[in-house]
Design a protein that fits this description.
Blueprint: E1 2-5, E2 19-21, E3 25-29, E4 37-41, E5 47-53, E6 59-65, H1 73-87, E7 93-98, E8 107-112, E9 115-120, H2 123-127, H3 129-140, E10 144-149, H4 153-156, E11 162-168, E12 173-178, E13 181-186, H5 199-206, E14 213-217, H6 223-230, E15 235-240, H7 243-255, E16 261-265, H8 268-278, E17 282-287, H9 299-316, E18 317-327, H10 334-348, E19 350-358, E20 377-385
Parallel strand pairs: 1-4, 9-10, 14-15, 14-17, 15-16, 17-18
Antiparallel strand pairs: 1-3, 2-6, 4-5, 5-6, 7-8, 8-9, 10-11, 12-13, 18-20, 19-20
Helix pairs in contact: 1-3, 5-6, 8-9, 9-10
The protein binds S-adenosylmethionine.
S-adenosylmethionine binds next to helix 6, strand 15 and helix 8.
Domain PUA: 1-85
Family: Belongs to the methyltransferase superfamily. RlmI family.
Subcellular location: Cytoplasm
Length: 388
């Protein structure tokens, strides 16, 4: 089972990127079943590495290793242990494996105290699932492992979506604590149930929220809102168009004994537009929309969306108010995001002063050579009027 690369291909693969596209392959030798492990050679028949193949995907091979080693349970366990070691953390809740960034393409593992949630996005990784589960059980001895493999890319890979306990059992809402705040990861919710990537950004925003009137826009289960309230916010409004997310936000608020909040089940774009008219003014606004574009072809509409929502938020802020603005759209670069924010400030007659520039935490590492691992932008901006 050998894959040979073409001669004049870009040096991306040689320089450490694990993806091999269909148009980079000269030939595939042998009758290889999709999802199986293949040995990859360059045009001079020099061994490059091992990975898994899927002819249904434009990314034909994802490399797992550059060494000639067996891909077995020991290999997977070694990779997970390496990911844990590089995190160097004593936290009980963290992202254990971040896919390509941890040399395990197609695998996400989040640990919520005694429970683990995994998300598998590729057929090749799906085939390695028994090794993944065995390794996680040996390393963490968890009470339960929930598989929440629901990404749309699974369909292209020829896989069904999965959402079930694959080891042990646990509650539908998995309890965990972050920054001494009680949270619930929703096994029926979005992604792995909670957005661990925003936990430090939310904590920093909290520092700016004491005695403030706040708005958590695209709140999901209220990560930013509870951090604001914990820091002493006077009041927080949460907006999300997922009713379920708000119901769980309500439970989380009650768990933490917070009372000064209001839940609004609405489309944030419309809601902010209407508030605009009634000119309700906030001291602090967080805007954390979902990814607006999956591929570069939708980038322009994503930028339009960012400009619109940030402009609306800026109009609702008091002079000198704080805008915490996030973008998780991988195809939108930090510079493009900044340019969009500048365009929104220009339209609203304001300037934006950066008080904090955040991004992905240590357990969502960015491999600079694999730019797809870089997705989260976060800015804490003081918005100041220049035109009255
Ligand atoms: C990236 S998540 C927010 C994560 C959250 N800030 C956290 O840290 O846990 C985006 C959220 O936006 C919500 N959403 C998507 N489109 C929306 C819209 N047009 N109006 C309101 N909410 C929307 C989704 O339901 C989802 O909960």
């Amino acid at each position: 089972m050998k894959v040979f690369l073409k001669k004049n291909i870009k040096p991306r693969i040689k320089n450490g990127h694990p993806w091999i596209y269909d148009n980079e392959i000269e030939k595939i030798e042998g009758n290889v079943e999709n999802g199986s492990i293949v040995n990859v050679f360059n045009h001079e028949k020099y061994f490059i590495g091992k990975g898994y193949l899927n002819t249904n995907s434009k990314i034909r091979v994802r490399l797992l290793t550059r060494k000639n080693e067996s891909i077995n349970k020991d290999f997977i366990k070694k990779r997970i242990l390496a990911a844990i070691k590089r995190r160097n953390t004593s936290e009980k809740t963290f992202r254990v494996v971040f896919s390509e960034a941890d040399n395990l393409p197609g695998l996400i593992v989040d640990k919520f105290e005694s429970y683990i949630v995994i998300d598998i996005t590729t057929l090749g990784m799906e085939k390695l699932k028994p090794y993944i589960l065995e390794s996680l059980i040996e390393i963490f001895n968890p009470l339960g492992i929930y598989e929440k493999s629901e990404s749309s890319s699974r369909i292209k890979e020829g896989l069904e979506k999965i959402s079930e306990w694959v080891y042990g059992r646990g509650p539908e809402l998995i309890p965990f604590q972050i920054n001494d705040i009680k949270f619930l990861a929703d096994t029926k919710g979005q992604k792995t149930g909670a957005f661990l990537d925003q936990r430090y950004n939310a904590m920093i925003l909290g520092n700016f929220s004491k005695n403030k009137i706040c708005l958590d826009c695209f709140s999901y289960t209220g990560n930013f809102a509870v951090h604001m309230l914990r820091a002493g916010a006077k009041n927080v409004i949460l907006i999300d168009y997922s009713k379920r997310a708000l119901e769980i936000a309500d439970e989380i608020m009650k768990l933490n004994k917070f009372e000064n909040y209001e839940l609004i089940n609405a489309n944030a774009f419309d809601f902010l537009k209407n508030l605009d008219k009634s000119s309700k003014m906030f001291d602090v606004i967080s805007v954390d929309p979902p990814s607006f574009a999956k591929s570069a072809s939708n980038k322009l509409s994503a930028l339009k969306g960012y400009k619109e929502i940030n402009l609306r938020a800026m109009r609702l802020l008091k002079d000198g108010g704080i805008l915490a603005t996030s973008s998780c759209t991988q195809v939108v670069s930090e510079q493009e995001f900044i340019s969009t924010i500048i365009a929104a400030t220009n339209d609203s007659g304001k300037i934006a002063r950066t008080l904090y520039r955040g991004g992905q935490p240590f357990d969502h590492p960015i491999v600079l050579n694999i730019f797809e691992t870089n997705y989260l932008k976060f800015f804490l901006l003081e918005i100041e009027k220049i035109r009255y």
